[in-house]
Amino acid sequence: MVPPDPIEELPPVTTVQSPPAPPTAIRPRVVARTGLYAVPAANAAVVTFFFVQAGFGSNALIVLGRLTGLYGALLMAFQLLLVARLPWLDRRIGMDRLTSWHRWVGFGLLWTLLGHAVFIAFGYAELSSMDPVNQIVDLAGTVEGVLRAVVAFFLILAVGAVSARFARRRLAYETWHFIHLYTYVAVVLAFTHQVAVGTTFTASSAATAYWYALWGVALGALLAGRVALPLWRNLRHQLRVSAVVPESDTVVSVYVTGRDLDRLPARAGQFFLWRFLTRDRWWKANPFSLSAAPDGRTLRLTAKTAGDATAALRHLKAGTRVFAEGPYGAFTALHRTRPEALLIAGGVGVTPIRALLEELHGHAVVIYRVGADRDAVLYDELRELAHAKGAELHLVTGPAVPDRLAPAELARLVPDVADRDVFVCGPPGMTTAVLGSLRELGVPKQQIHFERFSLAG
């Protein structure tokens, strides 16, 4: 038999707390998703109207080619919106889910554009004596904008290839991101092709105005979220490292201060993309969660050494300039649906959990899962905070097998788990196992909150 894990429990302490805010009737994530789904649906209807208004033509393959090309262009514009990192969407949906949608829409875009090329090639080949390949070559050499479309298609094909799971795992993020930037070149080439030869838009001034407005909004959102907003915030707040505090041999906390931090809309549970502007690290951005709730004066991140980037944090000097993009993430109290909460952390995933505990109102239970006592990062802080807020704290240690957070163990520690909001953050394997346990225990999906750090180009 495997001996039971050591579990440290702190009895709840009665404290005076502000009453929890009542849950909203309509969840913010539902509102954002509904709006996001409505955007491509509404634009698809508008494009279809203009397409029908322009006339079909006599060749069915060419008609299908034109229509798939239009829908492909819509997907391309939607791609830009998904990676624009607009705060309103990010706080309600989360960068991880937006990134996942971006990836799947990207594969849909690839197949749609492939259909566009095939239908157009075979359609025009029917009207001439050429085979489809030579027909494309002829169109590229004789029709304005077609060569640009061919180049754009092959660029998107290359980006799609390196975004496939088997290839993505073998590439460094920086390499993948650099290749991914060619998508923006493809966007420009594809757009100029559409306005040059797209009969749907050349036949109607209203359709042309709509198409320019659509792409203006998509590109404007991208520039606003990815360029203008980060630059403005960093110029305003003038972030600098104020202190570097080793938490253990492998874990370090970095304190960042700046101007008007009370005006920075950061919440416990969110993360930033941090660039520390030293000579050797200024070009690298790394996602680290806030490990303490923002107090309007200081931001704190805590990281475990997992490579050169995290190892270098220990050697930062006070006064080092910081460029931070964010805050990002939907792993916040904004999405609470119940007055009581369960917070489950694994390893260094305790950092956003610790920050959330500081902000949350209502009774909370915290479960901290680590391999051994020495791996419990920030545990002393967590224990003091739990004591001050009247929360229950369980430290669960031991090897990963057998599962220490199986349904029976979770039900023993938190009998009313199905009546609580549950926030989960930890290594992917642990997170997946805990989510499975929560489903078995009947915790409603809308009460389960988790976030996987994932960046998109």
UniProtKB/TrEMBL annotation:
Its main location: membrane. Keywords: 2Fe-2S, FAD, Flavoprotein, Iron, Iron-sulfur, Membrane, Metal-binding, Oxidoreductase, Transmembrane, Transmembrane helix. One of its GO terms (molecular function) is 2 iron, 2 sulfur cluster binding. Pfam families: Ferric_reduct, NAD_binding_1. GO terms for cellular component: membrane. PROSITE patterns: FAD_FR. It is found in: Membrane. This is Oxidoreductase. The keyword Calcium does not apply. Residues 1-23 are annotated as: Disordered. Gene3D superfamilies: Nucleotide-binding domain of ferredoxin-NADP reductase (FNR) module, Translation factors. It is a multi-pass membrane protein. Residues 234-334 form the FAD-binding FR-type domain. The lineage of its organism: Bacteria, Bacillati, Actinomycetota, Actinomycetes, Kitasatosporales. The chain crosses the membrane at residues 36-56, 62-83, 104-125, 145-167, 179-197, 209-229. InterPro entries: FAD-bd_FR_type (IPR017927), Fe3_Rdtase_TM_dom (IPR013130), FNR_nucleotide-bd (IPR039261), MRET (IPR050415), OxRdtase_FAD/NAD-bd (IPR001433), Riboflavin_synthase-like_b-brl (IPR017938). PANTHER family: 1,2-PHENYLACETYL-COA EPOXIDASE, SUBUNIT E, NADH OXIDOREDUCTASE HCR. Its cofactor is FAD.
